[in-house]
């Protein structure tokens, strides 16, 4: 069975640029044989957090939330494509992730950060590291940092110039790292039930 990887992206802006990187992540993971799917927070548009998924009686959560909970539970690993607003996280993606907790447990996660500037959203990436760990994921040490995004990926999401080459190199290492931890976690889940 190929590794099932969900790629999360959460900008709600009309002129969003990070979708280039999210699409690149999905495409390149698929080219490596993963069963990768984009989860676009804007498209799902969960409400501003009221009840978490687990706070609904069984079968009564909104359909979009129910479907997403099932996808998260069945995934082998996660990639979070994270932009930076005022040194912080993008609210759409944070809102989506906060709807779930136990559904995330016992799988690895990797971070692709990006921005319009040279620091490539590194500050938001750092914040996500702690949040994903709190939500029960093992955050891999390889991180892809992309900036300036418009000089790294063209409008079709293809790598351009030296920055694009650098992205391809860092992606290869990231994907190897994620695949190793995905396999490790998968085997351990098969070998022993998670303790909680
Ligand atoms: C409200 C807002 C705040 C931003 N703050 C930062 C920032 O702190 N650091 C940075 O490098 N870029 C910042 N930017 C520029 C973003 O990196 C750039 O617009 C990027 O394309 C945003 O991602 P998106 O296009 O996928 O929404 C900011 C942009 C917006 C709209």
Draw up the topology in text.
Blueprint: E1 4-9, H1 19-31, E2 35-40, H2 41-44, H3 63-74, E3 77-82, H4 91-98, E4 108-114, H5 122-134, E5 138-146, H6 161-191
Parallel strand pairs: 1-2, 1-3, 3-4, 4-5
The structure holds flavin mononucleotide.
Low-pLDDT parts are: none
CATH-derived architecture: 3-Layer(aba) Sandwich
Q: State the assembly state of the protein chains.
A: single chain
How big a fraction of the residues is strand?
Answer: 15-25%
String of helices and strands: EHEHHEHEHEH
Shape annotation: globular
Helix content: 40-55%
Enumerate how many helices there are, as a single number.
6
Tell me about this structure:
This protein is α/β, with parallel strands linked by helices. It has a single domain, classed as Rossmann fold (3-Layer(aba) Sandwich). The protein contains 6 helices and 5 strands; from the N terminus they run E-H-E-H-H-E-H-E-H-E-H. It has helices spanning 19-31, 41-44, 63-74, 91-98, 122-134, 161-191, and strands spanning 4-9, 35-40, 77-82, 108-114, 138-146. The protein has a 5-stranded parallel β-sheet with strand order 2-1-3-4-5, with helices on both faces. Strand 3, helix 4 and strand 4 (108-114) form a beta-alpha-beta unit. The two termini are 25 Å apart. The model has no long low-confidence stretch (mean pLDDT 97). Bound molecules: flavin mononucleotide.
